[in-house]
Amino acid sequence: MDELDSAIVAHLQADARLTNRELARRLGVAPSTALERVRLLRERGVIRGYHADIDLAALNRPVEAFVACRVRPLSRAVIDNFKAALNSLPEVLASYVCAGDDDFILHVAVPDLERLHEFLIDRLSERREVLGFRSSIIFESTRKPVFAELPS
Amino acid sequence: MDELDSAIVAHLQADARLTNRELARRLGVAPSTALERVRLLRERGVIRGYHADIDLAALNRPVEAFVACRVRPLSRAVIDNFKAALNSLPEVLASYVCAGDDDFILHVAVPDLERLHEFLIDRLSERREVLGFRSSIIFESTRKPVFAELPS
DNA sequence: CGTGAAAAATACTCGCT
DNA sequence: AGCGAGTATTTTTCACG
Q1: Distance of CA B56 to the CA centre of its chain
Q2: Nearest C-alpha of chain A: how many angstroms from B3?
Q3: pLDDT of A75
Q4: Structure confidence at residue B10 (pLDDT)
Q5: Chain B contacts in chain A segment 85-124 (CB below 8 A)
């Protein structure tokens, strides 16, 4: 990870569909150089993939929330089972296994509040391992690209 | 948003660098058709952009956490000011303005636990509008593509 | 490692249905 | 809207510094 790699990562994070030619031009290197660097970054797993960023409202899911759950017993089997069950639900965008007040944090997106309530009551509360949960409706969200390494 | 649009969104969410040719092949339409559809989806804001998914550990930031904050007074001015200040910090990946027990939820990534502590003490606690906060260290995270619309 | 140039693949345009 | 053929760009390979 030298400066050239960091610059590539920064550019592709901002726009994953940059042509290799344009990327090379911005970096001030030959297209073949940029191409090879990007190939290596993918191979090393630094670049994990490329994803389109979709407007959730356009997919009829304008309501987002975090749902933090307490789960017991907190065994490997229960965690994996719970995680798999949740990720198969269409309402769930992402799930996080955590240490702290909450064992799981779910990021969900639904068409409306009624559907959120339904999810909490019918999907989450139903599960025996769920001791309790707490929801936070998201009003605004800001995601930032991770431009550079933090100094160590 | 007909089925063709949904399929395009699904494919580009999974791999934003699909060639238009391959996309068209998978959809069973002509390349020019796919190209025009994608153009319209971007124009309508359904596709907001394309981003490379980067391994945070490779950028020297293997430790992730959610930090949920209570902020007072919860006025527009304080919210906007707090939000702007946080988003300018390199540790912060994303920030969410919420309703619920927490007013703000921050997604942070740092090189190690020491740096997390430092962030909490020096950056967050320092601020007068912060009444309190609660951190959850993330052990595992799973992000899912949003494949289809939920039925209304 | 990086380069430049050639070959292969792809994007994009446009007249037509 | 969707299509297909033609043209312009781009990607990708590779022999060389």
Answers
A1: 14
A2: 12
A3: 96
A4: 97
A5: 87, 90-102, 105, 109-111, 115
